[in-house]
Amino acid sequence: MSTACPRRTLLGLGALLALPGCALRPALEHAPPVALPGTRRIDIATGGHTHRVMLAVPPAPAPAQGWPVLYVLDGDLMFALTAQLMRNRFARGPGVPAQGAVVVGLGYAGEQVLDLDARTYDYTPPAPGPAADGRGRREGGADAFLGFIDSAVRPLVERAARVDTARQTLFGHSYGGLCVLHALFTRPGAFQNYVAASPSVWWRDGFILREQERFLAARRADAAPLRLLVTQGEREAQVPADPARAAIARERRGAEHLRALLDGLRGAPGLDWRFMSFPGADHGGSMAPAAQQALALAIGARA
Length: 303
Hints:
There is one protein chain. The protein has a single domain (36-299), classed as Rossmann fold (3-Layer(aba) Sandwich). Helix 5 (175-186) links the parallel strand 5 (163-173) and strand 6 (193-197). The longest helix is centred in the middle third of the chain and has 19 residues, at 142-160. Helix content is 38%, strand content 20%. It is built from nine helices and eight strands.
């Protein structure tokens, strides 16, 4: 028996392969977008813009006391990364014990990776002086934003997942890190853990250092214990080679302000704090390792 295909069959197969979008040549450009399993989102309009709240729950039954919660600022940029890092802890299957946390991303509706106007307002503390920065972006809304988390976001999270209200972590990078420090210094009971990644301590000529002084003056020896992690990319501490960036760095005096912040933390009663520098990382490159460390701190494990 001959095993050769009839000429008509070969011609038909050739015509099929030539058809655009046929089953053997799927059109990737028309395929559905990637969705992160186990995640949800909801939009809430308040304060002049629409906040997007994103939720990721571990793919396992909750422990008896509930999951710890990690609140992630700049959620449009950081939520997917942090949520996937959390899910990766369960990659070996249900038979292998794993620790996890509920991850809550706080971002803004729309397609922007960063809503610069909204985050400038939400992440900067109320301070004396102009109500806007040099680019006309409003500042000083951090108290309203933190109040929004407490009054609107927490109830949503606690209804959606079984959580441990005694293990709550706030994580932010850059202006988000500034907001984390403001939260620690002005409402230390709101969270148990704080992660300030590459915080903009230079803002308003080190305004956050004044808040730190008031926090330390009011801190009692019997105060509830808190944990703080401050991180930075190694290259952030170096003078940029570009003259324009170097001039901005000199004007901001970021390294000087950060040293003052860390020096002020020494001996603070009831505050377990540490500083981490990520080798080879610049400001943007420090986000991913900071997210990994924030997750580890939230669940009480090593990264």
